[in-house]
Amino acid sequence: MRLRAATYNVKNTDGGKSLNGIAEELRCVEADIIGLQELDRGVGRSGNADLLKELSEKSGYQNARFCRSIYFGGGEYGTGILTPHPILDSRVKKLPSAEETRILTRFHIDVNGTIICFYNAHLSLEAECRAIQLKEIADEFVGGKLSVLAGDFNIDSFDELKLFEGCNIANFEGHSYNTFKTGGKIDNIITTPDIDIISVFLSESEYSDHNMLVADLEIM
Fold first, then answer.
1. Containing domain of residue 78, as a range?
2. What is the model's pLDDT at position 143?
3. What is the domain-level CATH number for residue 39?
4. pTM of the model
5. Number of folded domains in the chain?
6. Is 203 exposed, middle or buried (CB count within 10 Å of its CB: 0-12, 13-18, 19+)?
7. Using CA atoms, how far apart are residues 62 and 75, in angstroms rounded to an integer?
8. pLDDT tens, 108-155?
9. Mutual angle of helices 19-29 and 51-59, in 10-degree steps
10. Cα 209 from chain centroid?
């Protein structure tokens, strides 16, 4: 079975001004699961909108789940997922953080009868703190089954991903993608060995400071 996963830091849709454009980008990639970062819900700078709900409605991905990282600006700020498939359950795990609270979210999603474990993360800008977060994630993820990890990892070097030895990595040294427009290769999709990465491409964005990373996957 094949499926398409994506990760996209939407930069709070520029306060809601880019909602329509980002929704169209999401619709066009026709993904099975998309991990999103930097979402506002009920925040003043975004007109108190529920950005994920609006993206879901405008893009046609009928199943959405928002997860709060922090309370911010009178509302909530965090990450979320979009999928056309049923979301069976979800879990939010707080990661060790020295500054802004960071979370790892996990979802079980029924993709045409196969249960995929999908993780989404947005990690620290501080290298020391990020190293601890990555280790905690790897300790849970590596050795798992039918699992996909997506997100904005904010890494400075691909060496930081050595903890995921044996896993498949979409954005890596020698086959890398500038997901951050100023040149950073900070967003990624990682799979357990039982899910192969068939192809990867960058969907360049007109609306965010990140580009969307998309990977076509096949269950082995």
1. 2-219
2. 96
3. 3.60.10.10
4. 0.98
5. 1
6. middle
7. 23
8. 999 999 999 999 999 999 999 999 999 999 999 999 999 999 999 999
9. 50
10. 15
